[in-house]
Amino acid sequence: QIDQLLTDTQGFIVRDDGRKEIVVALRGSTSPTDFLLDNELFLVPFITPGVSPPLGSLVHTGFVTAWNSIALQVISVVRAQLNAHPGYSLVTTGHSLGGSLSSLAAISLRQNFPKVPIRMYTYGQPRTFNAVSAQFINSQFGTNAFRSWLLMGFFRAASSISTVLGYRHHGVEYWQNPDPATPGNVKQCSTTNGEDPTCSASIPFLGIGPSHLTYYGIAAGTAFC
């Protein structure tokens, strides 16, 4: 279990022996501390343990602060598990704030364990990077980064951070519109452009909508264990 008191960053690391996967799951916004971190919107240099991003890479202040508070712990646990279970792959996942942390976890694990296959799955992830960093993520993951958005009508997720501030999405977006969550209602967007104008970027932000809180029929906060 991951439970960092100062930043209130929480999650867990589990091993699925059937699928031979080590999964890093990180919690979305729940506490006042989380919401304070969400609103630390300045872009700062992308500095995190073991990662060497290209010149000009920037990242959301609050998200990288939260990730860096647990990064060494996560890397250490994952290293021990990979040593004990060679041949396993890695998966990171999270919703909203947890999605942003999941993307930071994914690139950190990619750079620290370059020979290990890794996939990331995020749900309602806000923009986390500038254009340089977003392209860096794309170059490292290609189609192994699954960024799912459920956006309907005129309401984008509460987590939409404006491109006016210098933010850009990484790929690959899977846009569910409308409900229900069927294969026919989910569109795979551009594999190189996280701001595909034919996908969620086509919907203006007019407020917080309920679509941010449910993905594939599962409400955020649903307890499974």
Automatic annotation (TrEMBL):
Annotated ranges, domain Fungal lipase-type: 23-147
Keywords: Disulfide bond
Organism domain of life: Eukaryota
Biological process, per Gene Ontology: lipid metabolic process
Catalysed transformations (reactions): a diacylglycerol + H2O = a monoacylglycerol + a fatty acid + H(+); a monoacylglycerol + H2O = glycerol + a fatty acid + H(+)
Listed InterPro entries: AB_hydrolase_fold (IPR029058), Fungal_lipase-type (IPR002921), Sec_MonoDiacylglyc_Lipase (IPR051218)
Family according to the record: Belongs to the AB hydrolase superfamily. Lipase family. Class 3 subfamily.
Protein name per the record: Fungal lipase-type domain-containing protein
